[in-house]
Amino acid sequence: MTTTGTTPPPPAATPLLDLHALVVAVRRRRRLWSSLAVLGLLLGAAVAVLLPPPPTATVKVLVVHEDDQPNDTGTLIRTDVALLGTTRIAGNALKSLNSPEDPEDFMEDYRGTGLTNNLLQIEVTGEDDAQAVARAGALADAFVADHVRRMRQTAAAEAKALLDQRDRMRDELAQVNEAIGDRSPESDPQASASIESLYARRALLNSRIADFDQRAADARTGTPKIIAGTQIVDAPRAVRHSLPKAAATNGAIGLVLGLVLGLMVAAIGTVVADRPVLRREIAANLGASVIAELSATSRRPSWPWRRRRTRLAHERLTATLARAVRGSTEPVSLLELGCARTTGALALDVAGALTAEGPVAVVDGLPRPRLADSRRKPRDVSVVAGEHAAAVPLTTRRIGVGSVAPGTAWTDLHHLGGQTVLVVRAGHGSAAWLHTVARQLADQRIPVIGVVLVDPDPRDRTDGTLWDGQRTALRGHYEWAARQNGTGTSHAVQAVGDGRPRTERPPRPAVRVPDSDQEAR
């Protein structure tokens, strides 16, 4: 199958925020948000233990209002709560307690809460339970006395106004009676009409005087009901404090707050850092397919079947890399990013698997740790420092081990091998640095055979295989050999991965790395 030199389709638009990658990255940082959740739990419990609430007493007062209505929205009881926080009531309570404390300071030690339209709860703190109970009782008595006094004053003012109006009506009635007495019976029709109007006026005044008397009596009658109804319905008592309950409540609140904070920090850090964790993202940023995955070595004890599964995966990866090194005509290097110890151990295992076919030397270009000091070094494998790579005999098979972490001397990578396998820890390098690695390897003409992903997400189901090799860095021994032999300029069908054919287009002058404004030549 051959292809013509048509323009490749433009790459698909990258979403601004990949929720799948975000969820995976946050889940991988579970140590962070779980630690913050546990920290919040401990802090909440510690606050309950180290900062217990002060001794508190509570009292409930039934407040009867003259204008009580069934559909009241709580305006009257809110007014009572506001009146409770005045210096007049606080000062009266302190006088009954014979306390020299300032009313403004005392107001900070209590608060009122309207439970219903007529029920007021007062909470008061003190140095001990006895003082708190005494303060609560004095404050409730002061509030009831002030409320009763205000209701009496209101009723007295209303009754006085009604009686004053009645007295004015009586004075007018006296004048009407006097006018009626001064008239003599006459036969004149106009005089008769005038007398009739005076009699009607007198009747109206008598009716209104009686009405004012009744309203004044009702005003006086309503006051005893208010006085008798406004009372303390729940005597002052100390509030019992349960330390286990408080610790559990505060701990639960701290746990939730810490968990939310941890998730937010993990999500924001993931978005800002832009560290790919999915196979497809790492493959796309490096321009090379993921050929194998390797679980990270855990220092904690694991189950036997997990250790066996990890060991089998490591053995399969070692055999795969040994076949790649055996079939290569030039040295192969393992370049690490975030997993130097794992890469060194993997190189030693591959070298040990090749010792039966001849001498093998591992060229150590790692900054640390030194492979010469490794306890797992096979007997027939020699470890040579990177600066002494030229001293290795040509008959000895070489396997280079190096790093592509920040600070790498890119021009020294040729001493480690003409081809490379990238061993990358998931979530370690940023997308920008993975682009840099792919661009620098392309500049150095070092083809990438594949990527070994260390510590992958176990729930990752994305595909880490690239099928658009024309727009990425060189991959594979066969591509590099074809280009070296001059056959890469023709339309050739190459086999990759699982044996599927891949059509290679003629090389272009420059390869642009995705999401990069620089060219790798």
TrEMBL record:
It comes from the Bacteria. Residues 17-96 form the Polysaccharide chain length determinant N-terminal domain. The chain crosses the membrane at residues 32-51, 252-273. Residues 484-521 are annotated as: Disordered. It is a multi-pass membrane protein. The keyword NAD does not apply. The keyword Lipid metabolism does not apply. Keywords: Cell membrane, Coiled coil, Membrane, Transmembrane, Transmembrane helix. Its main location: membrane. It is found in: Cell membrane. Residues 152-179 form a coiled coil. One of its GO terms (cellular component) is plasma membrane. InterPro entries: Bact_polysacc_biosynth/exp, LPS_length_determ_N. Belongs to the CpsC/CapA family. This is Polysaccharide biosynthesis protein. It comes from Streptomyces apricus. The lineage of its organism: Bacteria, Bacillati, Actinomycetota, Actinomycetes, Kitasatosporales.
